[in-house]
Every structure is written in C-alpha cells, then in structure tokens.
Design goal:
CATH class of the largest domain: Alpha Beta
Structural class: alpha/beta
Number of strands: 13
Bound molecules: adenosine-5'-triphosphate
Organism: Gordonia sesuvii
Number of helices: 10
Distance between the termini: 38 Å
Number of domains: 2
InterPro entries: AAA+_ATPase, ABC_transporter-like_ATP-bd, P-loop_NTPase
CATH architecture of the largest domain: 3-Layer(aba) Sandwich
Low-confidence stretches: none
Keywords: ATP-binding, Nucleotide-binding
Protein name: ABC transporter ATP-binding protein
GO molecular function: ATP binding
CATH superfamily of the largest domain: P-loop containing nucleotide triphosphate hydrolases
Helix content: 25-40%
CATH topology of the largest domain: Rossmann fold
Length: about 290
C-alpha cells in the first residue's frame, strides 16, 4: 500500500452542468483523523462517495487502500453515511448480526447504552442511539479505513464525547479516519483539516492554517438585539452567538459608522476569526 488509505488526485464530479466537486486532491494516512469541513452543499458527501467507489468520478482518480475502490475493499472499510445505512425494520442486534455475517466477523459486544434496546427496531430508536448503532456496525469488522459523514449530528454532548473517544481509539489502532462535522470543537480534535467550499478544496492543515489571516470584529453592547438588526440591515455579515455579536472580514470603521449613525454605543474590538467565520466569508465570496 502507498501509505495512504484514501487518496484523490484532481477529482471532479459533475451532475449535468453543475460541478459538485472541482479538482480536489487529498489523502488520509493510517493512524490519522482528518476532518472534512464545509458548508451545506460544499461537496463533502460527493467526494466521500467517490473515494469509496460508490459514485464514479467525472475526472481524476481515487484510491482506496492503495488501489481503485472495488467490492473487495468492503470488508476493510467502515462507512457511516448521513442516513446511517441501517435497516430500520430490523432490531439493533439483527442489524449487527446481518453485518457480522456479511463480513464474516464476530458479533461485537454492545455498549451499555445500547444493551437495553438490543431488541428494539432501529426505526423506533432515538437518533442518538441509531447513530451509536451505526458506529458499532461500522467498527465491528475492525476496518482499516473509517469514513464518517456527520457522525455526531443530533447526538447529545455526552454521547458525542464518547463517539469521539471511539474515533480516536480507531486511529490509535492504525485506522485512517475521514470525518465530516459541523461542530467546530470537533474539528479541533482532528489531526488535520480539509475545508471545502463550492466543490473546491480551499484550505488544509491546522485550524490556524484554515483561518489564515481572516479577521473578525467583536461588538460588545447592552443593546445587542438592535445592534444585530442594524448591522444585518446594512448587509454586514453579522453573527449572533448567544448575546455576543461578531462580524467577520469587515473593517471596524464600517461597523462603527453604522452603529454611530443609529446612536448605538458599543465597544468594537478586532479579533482573530474562527473557522466558522472563515467559512462564512468563503460562502459570501461565492
Ligand atoms: N445526485 C445528484 N444530482 C445532482 N446534484 C447533486 C447530486 N448529489 C449532490 N448534488 C449537489 O452537489 C452539491 C454538493 O452536495 P454534497 O451532498 O456533496 O454536499 P455536502 O458538502 O455533503 O453538504 P451537506 O453538509 O449538506 O451534506 C449540492 O449542491 C448538491 O445539491
């Protein structure tokens, strides 16, 4: 194997006239957790489906475990798609048995949280328990490559932390992991990040590399609701985070001007942008 569990070389995917993934090159190596970030529609799932051989490329080549993806790789990879890929009309334990039989693997032990619902139909479980089941199924045959498409969306904070412990343990055991997430605190748990926007790879590396020199402005004011409305009406890219107001990629003087004209008193402070703010800036540039 070339030392990479996943590889894309200038991969493009078009749907009719629309280019969903545009000349993306990337790799995932054994033992690392790579975070794939991007707004809705950025092309993450399309890229993943090509990497796993579930969707043909329009241009470029992909490699899964050192060669073109094919059926023989199924037993060496674990994939949790956004829709989880479980049989909703089978119970938890039936899903596990089915998958274990398909991969000729032993039926894994259920974590405590799933033990009580082992005989419940997956379709009747809460989303968090469904996700945990999908995880157990994906990991049962000890995959060398693990691909997780928003594995923790809709999962409570404790279960999310547990799922991340599991992800890390898989990487520590030598698997290469590619994971998409919308939670920035999860992005920080990855060894390396890839950022997609409009089908293109627009950033890679550490959190610092992704944010680059994008700046933001923090606005402190007691009148946060009115401040938000004024900046929003002025087409300034304002973000309300609780009661804190942040404005990425905007000159503090522009904000000062808009607020002074409306008679709002506020403390305006330039700060470093977050990854979310960098993503918002990229989305507005398109
Ligand atoms: N089969 C298809 N036919 C036409 N367009 C498609 C198809 N699959 C995806 N697209 C389009 O390609 C773009 C990228 O979709 P994709 O699902 O890869 O994005 P994503 O980054 O995974 O988004 P999300 O975070 O919402 O899952 C979207 O505009 C989507 O509508």
């Amino acid at each position: 194997m070339s030392g990479e569990v996943l590889r894309a070389d200038s991969v493009t995917r078009r749907f009719g006239d629309f280019t969903a993934v545009d000349s993306v090159s990337m790799t995932v190596r054994p033992g690392e957790v790579v975070g794939l970030l991007g707004a809705n529609g950025a092309g993450k799932t399309t890229l993943i489906r090509m990497l796993l051989g579930l969707l043909a490329t329009s241009e470029g080549a992909v490699e899964l475990l050192g060669g073109p993806p094919d059926r023989t790789h199924r037993a060496r990879m674990g994939y949790v798609p956004q829709n989880l890929g479980l049989y909703r009309d089978l119970t938890v334990v039936e899903n596990l048995s089915f998958s274990a039989a398909a991969y000729d693997a032993a039926i894994p032990e259920l974590p405590a949280a799933l033990a009580d619902v082992r005989n419940t139909l997956v379709g009747d479980l809460a989303l968090g328990a469904q996700r945990q089941t999908a995880f157990v199924v994906a990991l049962a045959h000890h995959p060398e490559v693990l691909v997780l498409d928003e594995p923790t969306s809709g999962v409570d904070a404790l279960s999310r932390a547990e799922l991340w412990d599991t992800i890390r343990a898989q990487a520590d055991g030598g698997a290469g992991v590619l994971v998409t997430t919308h939670y920035m605190e999860e992005a920080q748990q990855c060894d390396r990040l890839l950022l997609m926007a409009g089908g293109r790879l627009v950033g890679s590396g550490s959190e610092d590399d992704i944010i680059g020199d994008t700046r933001a402005v923090a606005v402190h004011t007691s009148d946060w609701a009115r401040t938000f409305a004024i900046l929003n009406a002025a087409d300034i890219p304002v973000i309300l985070d609780g009661r804190a107001i942040r404005v990425p990629d905007t000159d503090p003087a522009t904000i000062d001007e808009a607020l002074s004209a409306a008679g709002v008193e506020a403390e305006i402070r330039p700060v470093r942008a977050t990854i979310e703010e960098r993503m918002l800036v990229l989305a507005r540039e398109r």
